[in-house]
Predict the 3D structure of the following.
Amino acid sequence: MTGLTDQQLARYARHIVLREIGGGGQKQLLAARVAVIGAGGLGSPCLQYLAAAGVGRITVIDDDEVDLSNLQRQTLHGTADVGVSKSGSAKAALKALNPEVRVTAVRERLTPENAADLLEGHDAIADGSDSFTTRAAVAAAALTLETPLISAALGPFEGQLSTFRGWEADQPCWHCYVGDMQDRPGRSCADVGILGAVAGIMGAMQALEVIRSLVPFGEPLSGRVIIYDALAQRMRTIALAKDPKCPRCAAA
Ligand SMILES: [Zn+2]
């Protein structure tokens, strides 16, 4: 296998034996650059699986600090990290997991003003942030930059996940899906509660879809939304069409 070191052949052996990934796919992962917004409940497992998979460069964007109440679900951080920036704590944890990965910690809130600058140059964007304002800014930048957006969201016992490639003629964008929804005060995880493992399931699945967008295999999730119901322990997938009147992605 050319181009991979003995260490890499050993570390990624279980990927390399997969027909769907192989040595070529592993090299694509090593060369890839992914941005993850939010190093919280979704970002923790998502970042862990991306770093473990050998995604070469990862940008972690989070302006928050680790709070004791986060540790019930944000598994990237430990008790000793309470009070530390989440992006910095995430960087340290990911470097311990896989020193080969180049992690950039951005301790900033992503806004409509800085979104395009922060996200430019990435091959995929994973959004696990906790506000609609941030999500809308990420989605607008991903559409402009023509970068796949893998977006996950959580409720107390539920999760949603999709991949958006809205710049393509037949693919919906994030705005086609959510419309003009606004932040609803009192509806964040901090306010309504969440079963921690639900975040783990959705964040791990988000990492899977990031990897799929970098090394295509199986059926892409674009044009479909996964809806996970932890109370019924059931998952369904619904089709999502491009809105021909979408103000963001429809052809003029
Ligand atoms: Zn759209």
Summary: Residues 150 and 163 are 4 Å apart (CA to CA).
